[in-house]
Amino acid sequence: MTIELQMLGWAIVLGFMYVFVAIGFATWQRGLKWNTGNRDDAEQPLGKHAQRAHRASRNFLETFPFFAAATLAVVVADRTGTQTALGAEIYLVARVLYLPIYIAGIPYLRTLVYIASIWGILQMLEAILF
Model pTM greater than 0.70? Predict the structure, then answer.
């Protein structure tokens, strides 16, 4: 199995972690009854850390399809190599770092880590297109 596909597999695991962390923060604030209920009533607003976890989760879900598509395209086209492996690894490491940085509220570092994850995808895209 290629490094790129391994990183894709770990990115899927990480995606679940993002979702579970966001749900965990919301449940911690709103309670287990909210989590297991139908949520028909108006929800109380989330606190800042729960909101950040939710936004970080949504941000992951916005970048992941591009990463998955680039990974699959690189593997199917047999264009894997050092550049694509590094791109996939950078994407994954950046996304691992992004969640705690976002929840902690470190704005400029968060943006740099986000840019690093996009750069990883672009490295893979370059291998596909050129």
Answer: yes
